[in-house]
Structure formats: structure tokens, C-alpha cells
Design goal:
The complex is a heterodimer of chains A (275) and B (570). Chain A has 275 residues and is mostly helical. Helices cover 69% and strands 0% of the residues of chain A. The N and C termini of chain A lie far apart (49 Å). The radius of gyration of chain A is 23 Å and the shape is flat. Chain A has ten helices and no strands. Chain B contains 23 helices and 20 strands. In chain B, strand 17, helix 18 and strand 18 form a beta-alpha-beta unit. Chain B is globular, with a radius of gyration of 25 Å. Chain B starts with a strand and ends with a helix. Classes of the chains: A mainly alpha (275), B alpha/beta (570). At the A-B interface, helix 8 and helix 9 of A face helix 3, helix 4, helix 5, helix 14 and helix 15 of B.
Chain lengths: 275, 570
């Protein structure tokens, strides 16, 4: 229930990077992973991304919920791609190598397998990094550094507040759902998906209403303490850029460059071992 | 002139969306170093008064101001909200919801950040404030890791950091357990002595605020100030009762005993209260006259819990340890103790919302463990503290019918049962109203009604009267009493010592996951050791008994309750 999507305070080099650095790195990294289908680079990104977890002292347990979620999604996605276009690989790589002596529309080809392998690798190249970003970025410090890179402070602060209230809202959701279950709302697996979705609305309405009243209180509390008075504000949690910040950004930029160069060399986004 | 901080001259206010003004022609002056309590029933205009003083009106809430409001000699509507917030520091009612920062340190720094104070200087100031408020050990903690008292100290610190000349506390005692409430009042007192600032406390729990002296009490009713005088004068008058504000319990006891209250007796504080020999004699004879034998306990257990333990999976913290308790049919019981002592967890386990790790629960002789949460709800209904968390329909009728419809009860039976429940709850006339048109107290009734319709034998209510004024409190509690008279067993989780004394037959005291006492409320609230361990507060009747030389304090309290139940409430 907890740690669905949420900052985990620990001491690590990754935690010490500024939020802005991590955000820039996240952009560079995802861009690098998105542009290419080159297996070699994707493997490097996936291994690197996963290797960063122990560096950031984030354990598998901390992100298990999100991992399961993506895994389910990944499996679904892979199956659907195969069902709807079993010849996508053949089209991309220009050859058709049937496997296991089968042939026909749904017969497996080496090209399709290779394409889907790359597809899966793309997930592994991006998702760990995103999770790492979420788990190691302190919302307040993130707001401070967003503000530093030019985002207006009221927007930055809203982002931080939203992140900070996620655990609160989760807790409230849990309480409301318990009370509704007592009244007879069925949320367990006994009920059909449709009736469960319907029941969820019985929880969302009170959740939204009570969140609205909280928003009013918090915005009053903020105004009473001068939020919005000046064009600028200072940040208790603000951090200065350190050497490691620059190094991280350079490394991520190099990864993006590598991705672009590989695309150029391969002549397309795909690395083709079948030629 | 210099030391006047706030001055109202014929001040009136009407909210834009409302047909009638909320405040009429009020005059009030608050000087530096003064400590003022503004009291009055809900809707009397005291919160509006607070919003006017701190600038939320007119800057956040729109409406028409008549007359004049001067803050340090300047007309408030010509100032900005930020100018005002440098003079008036506000601590809002819900210290949880007003926690803006991610951690204690950030929250203390929030106003400084907005004033563009440089980081190094800001850190020093935060350290300084944290030291004064004894928060320096928890600077890096998140709000959820703090106790209620610590949260309140953080809210105080947040305004203290900007050196204001008036502290405004809006219902500081709501949501606090009795002992924490007591220390909150002490904190406010020290704060004022240290800073020399003026303090305005808005609160309807008079007895608790008077734990430390105040200079004046401003009593409001219907948008007007009806009294602005010293506590002693006010308490000797009949004005409190006229406005529906509860007077300190010891004064009620004095009145029952036939003692006339005069300002010279210093009725504002039990400690300074002067009683003549005759007065003391009257109280003693009141006690002797109303003494009764012990009442028989009800027979037959409805809920029987044996050796119950519960551990949260996530945190691996054992929140219930070997709990054994019986609740009889037709009882009205209070569950008390600090936040986190296991009260709510206990009720959740009983209702099946959490699964016990060991122990047995039986209900009316049947083993409860095979029942699902939904099935248990037909026997034990659970009413959450905040009605907004339970309401999911637009219309009252649908809301009450919701539980029945989900159980597939045929529509004509639904209609019949819902109407009957609405009748009992006094909501029948409003059955076709939208819920949004109801007041908080009425919403509470709707949520109770929507549980009642399932015809449970027992109801568990979490803080049934939190944040309610005396009038609403009495309405809700009398309604519960009525349900109890109809044979429904009522269990109330509460911080309210008055509620416990007046309505519960028995109290079950939780402390750190265990039950440390299970006896009559009079016995609990006169037992110093239990009171201290469970963060309760002795009833002032206990001290009154001591003052009059009555040794059997519990007996005295019991006879007071019995007298009240028989003669005052019917």
C-alpha cells in the first residue's frame, strides 16, 4: 500500500544529486532509450539502470508494486503486439526466417522474436531509471531546483505538494474503502470487474470531496504565511550543484549522443543482425 | 494608542453568497500583551471574526464589510494580506491539514522562504524556534511521524518564526487528546509571556482554556458580542447558558448543590475558587443525598473478545496485545486512550477491516472469524469520524438506501426500511434533499442512519462529536442515547471527557495496545495513575471533591452523573 509512488529517504550519492540534475538526466536517458532500437545500447542502458539501484540504496522490495504493475503491462503488450502484427519483425529487418519448421500467419520468425526482444529491452532500459528518480528525489528539494532552472515557484511548489500528499491520499483511500466495504461495497475478487469499477466510484466521491476541503485549508494556510507575496522566494532545501551533478549530466548526455550516432551508423533506428 | 493591535468599530460582515449578515456592529479592542478568549456556539460568527482579523476576509473570502477594522491603526482593507500576516500569526484549527512543508524544518521555514530570507539565516532562525518549542530532535521528521502535540507546536513555530504581535488560535483544542490539550494551553500561556504579544483564542471548550488564566472572555451569539468581561464576571452570570456554551463542570456541580456563584468567589479557576464553610457543607450534603448503591452490570455478552493481538504487516508493529474484553447487550461504552493506543485498530479488527493475528472474537455467541467484512457489518456498524468520508451519494434517501441496495434487498423493502430509519433519525422530512444542503451535524446523522438501516445490534462510533459545539453535541449524544434505549449497543471512541462521564456506563482505557482499565467512567477519571498513562484529564469534579474534603471522589462523581441523568436530562 505505501511506497506506491513515493520518495524514500536514505543516504546515497544519488539522493545527494540535485533534483534538477536528476530531471535533466531522466530526460536525456529516456530520449536515448526512446530513439534507438539498437540492442547493444539498450542492453547497456538496462544493465546500467538496474546497477544504479544498489548505488541509490533502493531495494527491490521498495518498488515491488510498480515493478509488478509494469511487468503485467509488459506481458500484455508483448502478447498483443504478437497477435496483431506477427510479421512486424520481418517487415523491419527485411528477411524472414521461420523457426521450428513452422509456417503460416502466426508462425514464429527469428525477426519477430528479435524485434520483440528489443521491445522488452526498451522497457528495462527506461522503467528502472524512472522508478529510481521517483524514489530518490525529495519533493521539496525537487521544487527548489525546478524553480532554479526557471519554472515559476508556484508551479514548482504545487508539484512538491502533490508529491507530498500522495501518501496521505493513499491512507485516506484505504480508510474510505474499508468503510464502504463494511456497507457492502464489494472490492474483492469475488465481484466482477465492472461491478468493482462501479464500486470504486463509491470511494472516489468521498475521497475527492474530502480532498477538496483539504485543499481549501492548505491554500489558506499558505496564504496566511505569505505564499505568493514576492516574485521570488528562497528555499530551505535548496542545494548547490556539485561535481557529481555535472558528471551525471555529462554521462547521460553521452548516452544520448551514442544513441544518435548508432542510429546514424545503422542507417535506421534498428540494429540488423540478419543482413 | 500605540499598543492597540486590533480595533473593531461597528464592524459587520456579510458573505457574498449569504442572504443575511454574519456579523453585526461589533466593537472590540485588543491591546498588546492581552489574552482574550472568544467563545460562542457554532455559527455565532467567531470564525468569521478570526478571518477578518487575519485577512482571509476580504482577501480569500469575499463579502461586504461595514464599519471599520483597524490593525495597528491602519484600516485592514487598505492593507494586503501579507502586511497583515506580519502582524497577526494564525494557527488554524486542523494542525494536520495546515502542515505545508514536507518536514518540520521546512514547515517552520515556510514563511521565511516566502519572505526571501537567505538560506543560512533561515537555518539559524529555524534552529532557534525549534529549540524554544523543543522540536530540535524532530526537525527532519515528516508530519505523519509526529504526535498531535508536536504538530501543534510546529504550527505555532511556523508563525513564531515571523515575529508577529498577535497570535490567533482558531479552535486549538479540536483533535487533541485531553492531556495534549492541557499542554497546548500551557504552551500558549508561555508563548505569550515570552513574546509579550497579544493572544486571541477562539474556542468553545471554556473549561479547558481556563486551565490557564485569560484576561477577558468575549462571548458571541448570533453575530453579536453579547458579553466582553472578565472570566469571573461572565461565569457568575447566566449568559453562557443563554448562548449554549458549556460552563466548567465544577460550576454545574456547585449549582446542583444549591451554591450561588458570585464573581468574588473566582469561579474562573478551580484552584483559586473560594468556597465558604456553608458552600462546602451544601456540596457534601448533595453528595450524601445522591449516593447510590452500585448498579448491576448488564447480563449476557454481545461481543466477546479473547486474547486478541494484531500486528501491522507493513510496519511489523504490534498495535494490539492480548486484548480481552466483553461488551454486554444494551451497554453504552466509551473507548479512550491516546492516539495510536490501539482504539481504532481494535474497532477495525472487530469489524473485519483488519485481520487479527491471534485471538478470538465472538458475537452473540457465534464465532465471528468466518464472517466477511460485509457480513459483520450487519451486526456491528462502524461510523467514521468525518461524515464526508462516508457519503457517496447525492440524495439523502439514496445514501441511506445504498447499503441495502448493495445487498440486493428488493426495492419495496428498501423503501420501507429506509423510511423507518430516517424517521428514527429525524431526517424523514428531508428525505428528498441533497446531502450538500445539510449541516455537519445533520450529515453525521445521515451517516449514522445509513448504518442503522442495516439493523446492526451494535454500533461503533469514532469521535461522534468531534468539533461540535455544546448544542450539537447534546443533540448527537441524545440521539445516540435514544438508539441505545431502543436496544442498540453503542461503543464510542472518544477524547471527550465530558462525553464519557455523561453518556457512557463504562470506559475501556487503551494504552500502548493493551487495556489498562475497564471500569466506570467515574472511577477512571478519578484515578490519577490511569489518567496519566492514558493521556486523559481528571475531571474537575475530582478536584472539587478534594476541595470539599470528600474522600470518595469516584463516588462523588458518580452521584453527580446520576443526579444529572435523573433530573436534568430525561
Amino acid at each position: 500500500m505505501n511506497n506506491l509512488f513515493n520518495y524514500i529517504e536514505r543516504k546515497s550519492p544519488i539522493h545527494e544529486l540535485t533534483g534538477a540534475t536528476k530531471l535533466v538526466c531522466l530526460f536525456l536517458w529516456s530520449f536515448a532509450a526512446m530513439t534507438t532500437y539498437d540492442t547493444r545500447l539498450l542492453v547497456v542502458l538496462a544493465v546500467l539502470g538496474i546497477a544504479l539501484f544498489p548505488v541509490g540504496r533502493i531495494r527491490l522490495k521498495d518498488v515491488s508494486f510498480m515493478l509488478w504493475f509494469t511487468l503485467v503491462f509488459l506481458v500484455l503488450n508483448t502478447v498483443l503486439v504478437y497477435v496483431f502484427s506477427p510479421h512486424h519483425g520481418t517487415e523491419i529487418y527485411g528477411t524472414c526466417t521461420y523457426l521450428f519448421g513452422l509456417s503460416g500467419h502466426f508462425a514464429p520468425t527469428a525477426e519477430q522474436f528479435f524485434f520483440q526482444l528489443n521491445y522488452i529491452l526498451k522497457y528495462f532500459a527506461t522503467i528502472p531509471f524512472v522508478l529510481l528518480f521517483v524514489c530518490t528525489t525529495n519533493p521539496s528539494e525537487f521544487a527548489a531546483s525546478l524553480n532554479k532552472i526557471g519554472v515559476s515557484y508556484s508551479v514548482s511548489y504545487s508539484v512538491a505538494l502533490a508529491l507530498r500528499y500522495i501518501p496521505d491520499i493513499q491512507k485516506q483511500y484505504h480508510e474510505i474503502s474499508q468503510a464502504s466495504q463494511a456497507r457492502g461495497v464489494e472490492l474483492s475478487k469475488k465481484a466482477s470487474l465492472i461491478s468493482r469499477l462501479k464500486s470504486a466510484s463509491a470511494i472516489l466521491v468521498p475521497l475527492i470531496l474530502s480532498s477538496m476541503s483539504r485543499i481549501e485549508i492548505i491554500s489558506n494556510a499558505m496564504e496566511l504565511r505569505c505564499f505568493g507575496k514576492n516574485k521570488k522566494r528562497t528555499w530551505y532545501m535548496a542545494q548547490k550543484f556539485k561535481v557529481l551533478d555535472y558528471v551525471s549530466m555529462i554521462v547521460c548526455a553521452l548516452l544520448l549522443v551514442a544513441s544518435l550516432v548508432l542510429t546514424h551508423i545503422n542507417g535506421s533506428r534498428f540494429f540488423n543482425p540478419f543482413k | 494608542m500605540n499598543d492597540v493591535i486590533v480595533e473593531f468599530k461597528d464592524l459587520g460582515f456579510q458573505y457574498r453568497a449569504q442572504a443575511k449578515p454574519t456579523l453585526y456592529n461589533n466593537n472590540l479592542t485588543v491591546k498588546k500583551g492581552e489574552k482574550i478568549l472568544i467563545a460562542g456556539p457554532s455559527g455565532c460568527g467567531k470564525s468569521t471574526m478570526a478571518s477578518l482579523i487575519n485577512g482571509l476576509i476580504p482577501f480569500s473570502y469575499k463579502g461586504e464589510i461595514t464599519g471599520s477594522l483597524l490593525i495597528k491603526g491602519k484600516e485592514s482593507r487598505d492593507m494586503s494580506m501579507f502586511d497583515i500576516s506580519h502582524i497577526v500569526g494564525t494557527v488554524l484549527q486542523d494542525s494536520d491539514a495546515q502542515f505545508v512543508g514536507m518536514t518540520v524544518a521546512e514547515d517552520l521555514a515556510f514563511a521565511l522562504e516566502n519572505d526571501c530570507v537567505e538560506q543560512g539565516q533561515m537555518k539559524n532562525k529555524v534552529q532557534e524556534v525549534a529549540k524554544i518549542l523543543n522540536l530540535d530532535q524532530v526537525l527532519r521528521h515528516a508530519p505523519s511521524e509526529l504526535s498531535g502535540g508536536q504538530k501543534q507546536r510546529v504550527s505555532v513555530g511556523g508563525v513564531m518564526a515571523s515575529d508577529v504581535s498577535l497570535f490567533l488560535f482558531d479552535e486549538p483544542l479540536a483533535n487533541l487528546d485531553p492531556k495534549t490539550g492541557k499542554s497546548a494551553i500551557e504552551l500558549i500561556d508561555e508563548l505569550q509571556k515570552r513574546t509579550g504579544a497579544a493572544v486571541i483564542i477562539i474556542e468553545h471548550r471554556l473549561e479547558d482554556v481556563l486551565h490557564r488564566p485569560v484576561d477577558r472572555i468575549v462571548l458571541m451569539n448570533g453575530g453579536r458580542i453579547v458579553s466582553d468581561t472578565t472570566p469571573d464576571e461572565l461565569l457568575a452570570s447566566a449568559k453562557l447558558a443563554e448562548c449554549g456554551v458549556r460552563e466548567p463542570l465544577y460550576l454545574t456541580a456547585l449549582k446542583y448543590a444549591g451554591v450561588e456563584i458570585r464573581p468574588e468567589m473566582h469561579p474562573a479557576s478551580l484552584h483559586d475558587l473560594v468556597l465558604s464553610r456553608q458552600d462546602e457543607e451544601k456540596i457534601r450534603s448533595f453528595f450524601i443525598k445522591n449516593q447510590k448503591g452500585k448498579r448491576a452490570l448488564p447480563e449476557g455478552n454481545l461481543l466477546s473478545v479473547k486474547n486478541l493481538s494484531f500486528t501491522y504487516e507493513k510496519t511489523e508493529k504490534q498495535t494490539l496485545k492480548d486484548i480481552s474484553v466483553d461488551i454486554g447487550k444494551g451497554e453504552m461504552v466509551a473507548i479512550v486512550g491516546t492516539n495510536g493506543a490501539g482504539k481504532s485498530t481494535f474497532s477495525k479488527v472487530v469489524c473485519g477491516m483488519e485481520k487479527e493475528s491471534a485471538g478470538e472474537i465472538s458475537f452473540a455467541g457465534k464465532d465471528f472469524s468466518d464472517y466477511s467484512i460485509k457480513e459483520r457489518a450487519e451486526h456491528v456498524g462502524y461510523v467514521m469520524q468525518n461524515p464526508n468520508q462516508m457519503i457517496s451519494k447525492v440524495m439523502i434517501f439514496d445514501e441511506v438506501a445504498f447499503g441495502l441496495r448493495l445487498r440486493g434487498v428488493p426495492e419495496d423493502e428498501v423503501k420501507e426500511r429506509v423510511e423507518k430509519a430516517l424517521e428514527i433519525c429525524g431526517l424523514y422530512k428531508m428525505r428528498n434533499w441533497p446531502i450538500s444542503a445539510l449541516s455537519y451535524g445533520q450529515k453525521k446523522r445521515v451517516t449514522i442512519c445509513s448504518i442503522l438501516v442495516l439493523e446492526p445490534e451494535m454500533m461503533i462510533l469514532d469521535e461522534p462529536t468531534a468539533g461540535q459545539d455544546y448544542r450539537n453535541y447534546t443533540r448527537i449524544m441524545e440521539f445516540l442515547k435514544e438508539l441505545n434505549d431502543r436496544g442498540i449497543t453503542i461503543v464510542m471512541i472518544t477524547h471527550d471527557m465530558h462525553l464519557m462521564l455523561e453518556y457512557a456506563d463504562r470506559s475501556i482505557v487503551f494504552n500502548d495496545g493493551r487495556i489498562i482499565a475497564d471500569k466506570t467512567c467515574a472511577e477512571v477519571l478519578t484515578d490519577t495513575e490511569i489518567v496519566d498513562r492514558a493521556s486523559l484529564k481528571e475531571t474537575s469534579l475530582y478536584h472539587l471533591a478534594g476541595k470539599c474534603g470528600i474522600e470518595d471522589a469516584a463516588g462523588f462523581v458518580q452521584s453527580f452523573i446520576d443526579y444529572e441523568r435523573e433530573n436534568v436530562r430525561k
